Each structure stands twice: as C-alpha cells, then as structure tokens.
Amino acid sequence: MSDAVPAARPRVLSGIAATGKLHIGNYIGALSVWAKEQDRYENFFFIADLHALTIPENVPPDYLREHVREIVALYLACGLDPDRSVLFLQSRVPAHPTLAWIFDCLTPVSWLERMTQYKAKSEQASPSAGLLTYPALQAADILLYQPKYVPVGDDQRQHVELSRDIAGRFNHLYGDLFVIPEPLIRQSGARIMGLDDPAIKMSKSLAEKRDGHAIALLDPPDTVRRTVMRAVTDSNPALRRDNLSPGVENLLVLYEILSGSTREQALHQFEGNGYGPLKTAVADLAVDTVAPIQSRYNDIRADDTYLDKVLAEGAEKAAAVADHTLHRVMQRVGLA
Ligand code: TRP
Prior knowledge:
By secondary structure, this protein is mainly α. Helices cover 54% and strands 7% of the residues. The protein is built from 13 helices and 5 strands. The protein has helices spanning 24-36, 61-77, 95-106, 109-113, 116-124, 129-143, 157-174, 204-209, 221-229, 246-259, 263-270, 276-301, 304-333; strands spanning 11-17, 42-48, 85-89, 149-151, 182-184. The strands form 2 sheets. A 3-stranded parallel beta sheet has the order 1-2-3. Strands 4-5 form a two-stranded parallel sheet. It is globular and about 70 Å long. The two termini are 30 Å apart. The model has no long low-confidence stretch (mean pLDDT 95). Tryptophan binds next to strand 1 and helix 6. Tryptophan is lined by residues 14-17, 48, 51, 138, 141-142, 150, 152, 156, 159.
C-alpha cells in the first residue's frame, strides 16, 4: 500500500464469504488475479465471516473458527502479501455491522427481496433476517473503504449494484459522502464450471458437499487426478472443434489457462483424440498449480503466531480507514 502516490493507485476492495472450500475457479478468477495486480492498486481484501452466519446451520462454531484461518492462510499462500495489501477479517472491524445497521434503515425491503441470491437461498430453508439484509452488510463492507473498484465474479454484480444504489440513496438523503464504486468483472477465466456438472459455475459450497465437483486448493494430488479423470464430457469418440460439449469446453478452458496456451494451440494438441489425453494434461497442470500453494499453506499453518500477527495488523489498518468513514456517516445522520 502506498500513501505517497494515492492518485496513481486506485483502491480496490473484495472479499470471500467464509463458507465452503476454496477451489481452482476461485484461484483463477479471483485470488491469482488479486495477487498479480497488487502493485497496480491500493488493495483491501477481507474474509466475510459475518456473512458466513447467514445460514447458521451450515457453520458450527468450531468449523467457522478453523475455516477462517484456513482461508487467510490460503490468501497468503496464493500470493497476497500483507505488505502490499490490507488483509483482514470482517468481524474484527466493528464499523462493518454498525454501518450495515444504518444502511438497513435506509434500504427498502423490496430492494433486498429482489436479489437473486436471496431468492435462491431462501427457497431452500426458512430465511433469517440476516439472509435478507446480507447485501446491506456487503454494501457497508465496500463503502467504508471508498474503493474505486470491486473485483468480483459475475454472480456478485447485482450485490455491487445494490451497494451503488445504497450509496446513492445515502448521498441523496444526507449529502454527498460515498464514492460510487464500480464492479470490476474480468472476462478471461471468470467462469470455471463444475467438473461433475458443466452447466453450473464451480461452487465453494458444492466443493464441500460433492466429491468430483471441484478441484479444491487443498485437495491431495490423487484426489485432484481422480476428480479430473471423472469429469463429465460426452459420448463422442473424439474431440472436434465444431462439436464441443460444455464439459469438454470447460476442460479446454482449464488447460488453456493453466498452461498459458491459446485455443488454437490446445486444439492442435488434442483435436482428433479421445478425451483421455486432455484430462491427463489438465490433471497434471492442476496438480502442479495446487502443489506450491499447498506447500506454502502448510508452512503458514505451522506458524500460528505469524497468522495472528497478520490478522491483528490487517484489522488495525482496515479499522483506521473504516472508522474514519463511519465517523463521518454518524455525523451526517446525527449520531455524532
Ligand atoms: N458476497 C460475497 C461472496 O459471496 C462476499 C462478500 C461480502 C463481498 N462482502 C463483500 C465481496 C464485499 C466483495 C465486496 O463471496
């Protein structure tokens, strides 16, 4: 982070909810990109542990405590650098739920009920109030830091748009205060699909629930291989460019991204063959991708003091920014 040249470095903020298992899709679409672009931006990355409680039956307390440390260690193992990025836990910065409450009070329920993620999740079980107000907390997560960009997957676009609406409503009611953030949605590698079901995006929660769905970043090599070799393809005898089913397309995309090849190079390599060689190549590349991450992860997990220090320093840096914004908000609404 550089205070010296703020204008040269737009601020970014993003987070991942502390539920499910981080997988290779998260690495390709989010973590590796965040890590690679750390010098282009002033970075805030956090773990949304308060959001993990919105479906409480999914997160026993001991699981949550452990899981949060696992995710921070994976952030670090994937290359996020605490000297260049502020890394923190949402629950350690109390300004988040405080601002979320203020946003709850100025957000029409109808805006929240419109969210497709809420509609999907509330179908499964009787929804908690927290599941409904989830995006107002997300708006607080974002707006406290006044970022220019919010790098997210396409599935979070609607939540970022709601954050913009909430910021606009606050600015309108109480006078301009919030920067209106923009979602930063990358085209390349944004969508890795489930290996057992290429019709749906690879998912953290299914990675936890279903064997064969995802390549989890902490899967042992034989599990990675088994998952790739079992990936859904189709019954065509050979790979043909004019006849790529979604499962084969997904394997090709994984091959291209992990090997740095173009589509043409990949087709040159695999066209005319059965799917075995493509799967073997993807399995090798996936193992080579997760192995160094796992080795760094194991080192980090062996040093609890280091992890505690990263989290304490991250919370302090984040709170300095968040508390400043919250104080201004409280003055505007008459709470300070
Ligand atoms: N909702 C995001 C997810 O499902 C996590 C999240 C919470 C987030 N607050 C955020 C992402 C703020 C970006 C910015 O993973």
